[in-house]
Amino acid sequence: MGPHSTSPPACSCNQHARRCRFNSELFRLSGGRSGGICERCRHHTAGRHCQYCQPGFWRDPGQPITSRKACRVCQCHPIGASSSICNQTSGQCSCKLGVTGLLCNRCGPGFQQSRSPRMPCQRIPEATTTLAMTPAVYSSDPQCQSYCNHSASRVHMSLRKYCQQDYVLQAQVLAAEPAGPAWSRLTARVLAVYKQRAPPLRRGDQHLWVPGADLACGCLRLPPGTDYLLLGRAPRHPDPARLVLDHLGLALPWRPRWARPLRRLRQQERAGGCRGLRAPTSGPALSPTTALATASQAAHRLDGQPIP
Prior knowledge:
It contains five helices and 20 strands.
């Protein structure tokens, strides 16, 4: 080395490495300023100069880069976060859909706690608070007013109310015809069975029987070509195979968003959730004034607590 040559500058490892190696290519590319590469960075640091944090750690702005505590471990919620790696500058974790917070530990606006570790926060469907609007037009006959099940404009569903139904169906009304002086017969296509009865129901075309008095009072309005959510209890009828829909039940224009909470209720029933929740021996099929909770009630909150 000539009398005017200079040695490469020493490595700068921010006190996180004990040794470094020289790389001539980096030295050339830097214009002769630096060619050192730190080896075995400690204290959860990484980079040529141990100048940033390893994945899974973030830079604490309150500590100098030379501090052993310059990099702090990410504290992402084990269920609310999609991974254990956070933003190395802010510490913000990557949250699952519907989850928010620096650590992904709470549900965001419009979402609620669920029991699913894959989707710990689910969007609050309208069906969990308002199932449907009941018909607004009925006969002006006072007897019809007390006969029809229309005491409120909102209908809610809870697991208890679901369990008290004999059947919960999604069906499309295809045609209607009178069947004698006391009944009308509807041809309906059952699209989904969310709660069974005895005898069991199956998907496909079958008949629904509606008392003539219910149609005359306007308790049920079922124009053909429309999909409905049908809820009811089996009335005392000589033929148990008949699917009867009367004023004690409900026929609500179908909304696709109801499918998920209804499937959840069906799963709860299959898991034994309806034990001890049998229907009373008398009374209406579904009280419109009864508030119906969401299909799954959260037992724990995300806030500050691990979810089982």
